[in-house]
Amino acid sequence: MSLIRTVDICNKFGSLQVMKNVSLTVEQGEVVAIIGPSGAGKSTFLRSLCGLEKITDGEIYVDDELLEKRVDGHSQLHLSHEKRAEMLLRMGMVFQRFNLFPHKTAIQNIMLAPMNVKNESEKMAREKAMALLEQVGLSDRADDYPARLSGGQQQRVAIARALAMEPEIMLLDEPTSALDPELVGDVLAVMSDLAKSGMSMLVVTHEMGFAKEVADRVVFMCDGELASDEPPSEFFTNPKNPRARQFLSSIL
Amino acid sequence: MSSFEKIINWLPALLNATGTTLILTITSVVCALIISIFLALGKISKRRIIKWPSTAYVFFFRGTPLLMQLFFIYYTLPQIFPAMNISSKFLAAFIAFSLNVAAYLAEIIRAAIQSIDKGQMEAARSLGLSYGQAMRLVIIPQAYRRMIPPICNEFIMVLKDTSLVSIIALTDLTFQTKMIASNKASALVYIPAMAIYLCLTAVFTIVFDRLEKKLSVYESNE
């Protein structure tokens, strides 16, 4: 059973085609890195999965259940509001710019959704949030507001916040791109730990080291298309796709 | 009697009328705030059936003079619908000000809500919060602080605009001042009257400043 499966999903915006027939499957426990030049549609793809961006064509499955099916922008599926919300919650999203709630402390950021969406008691939500902060190495910063945390710390809180909803897969959209270079390491370490613990992950990243060492597969996207999908050992040593080869030589 | 003694003698009457000015300002701004939250959310809404009436409301009340709206409620409405005869001048003024100020506050609230980074709504929705929950728990609490300075500004404008009610002979500070000026044939009374308006705006400026500082706690880096 696949966790996420997309079939020929597209995103057209007038004559501009941001995403063209992207088909990708992520299995339980897999870590998939999405790599490619900017404007390749990587973020659009990730955001389409969790409903932040509307696809115009194609199908999206979660746990082999249809979540979205569109033809020419028109939905071909009638899911109940609750069902759709429940399916979307199987995915946890982490943003490039963290998007922590600035008026809430670190621990309140993590507790907000469990208490208001899952109706967990404050005590239970707090215990869980503390454990998650421990997991990302920030248990001593629980009561700090985001403005008092560094970018790397904010991103770790954001990861903990997404984990608090107990997703089956984590979607990370360039989680380290907005960070100062010296702060990247801590966030990557948290992500590696998460991968080792068996969490399925789909990561848009420019961190080639992370893709090489942690990812099970590297997907290369270019001009809105999925150009190649291979294990990192092959992608980084002998990429099949000529554009991938060109991209790699330009960044290394 | 010296000028100074005259002014002292007028003070009790002036302060008495100041009560009306103050109560009218505060009650109508509070009522306007409640109306304006719905108007602002309506204007932001993507649904035309909600968006259109809110937009039309703001268009109308910002596009016609407040004084005309006051006349309309006090004189015109009873003429068209005898049942809507508002005998209380205060009530008529309260309704006119509430409706008018709501239109301005709605724009302030809308702008504050829309100034919050889009990523906040996305993060809230991706965590499973409904649109209403995201607004209530994430967006509006952050928008509060940004609303304070323009709302303070609006409040002070209303405080001064209430002098318009003197035209329908409601005994506010301006009306009382005019009465004293004509009865005692002395224009000196405008001096203490303006001083009272100044004191009131000063007090409210300080109160709103405090409120803004209190609400911005989380934005400081220290």
Mean pLDDT of chain B: 91
**SS summary, helix count of chain B:** 8
Shape of chain A: globular
- The pLDDT mean of chain A sits at 94
The CATH class of the largest domain in chain A is Alpha Beta
Which CATH architecture of the largest domain in chain A? 3-Layer(aba) Sandwich
Instruction: Report the sheet-strand fraction of chain A.
Output: 25-35%
Question: Biggest β-sheet of chain A, characterized?
Answer: 6 strands, mixed
Helix fraction of chain B? over 70%
Q: How is the CATH topology of the largest domain in chain A named?
A: Rossmann fold
Shape of chain B: flat
Largest interface: A-B, 29 and 21 residues
The profile of the biggest β sheet of chain B is: none
Question: Quick one: CATH class of chain B?
Answer: Mainly Alpha
Description:
The complex is a heterodimer of chains A (252) and B (222). By secondary structure, chain A is α/β, with parallel strands linked by helices. Chain A has 2 domains: 2-90 and 169-251, P-loop containing nucleotide triphosphate hydrolases (Rossmann fold, 3-Layer(aba) Sandwich), CATH 3.40.50.300; 100-166, no CATH class. Chain A is built from 9 helices and 11 strands. In chain A, strands 7-8-9-3-10-11 form a 6-stranded mixed beta sheet, sandwiched between helices. The radius of gyration of chain A is 18 Å and the shape is globular. Chain B is mainly alpha-helical and 222 residues long. Chain B has a single domain (3-217), classed as MetI-like fold (Orthogonal Bundle). Chain B has helices spanning 3-44, 48-63, 66-80, 89-114, 118-126, 131-161, 173-183, 190-215. The relative contact order of chain B is 0.14. Classes of the chains: A alpha/beta (252), B mainly alpha (222). At the A-B interface, strand 7, helix 3 and helix 5 of A face helix 5 and helix 6 of B.
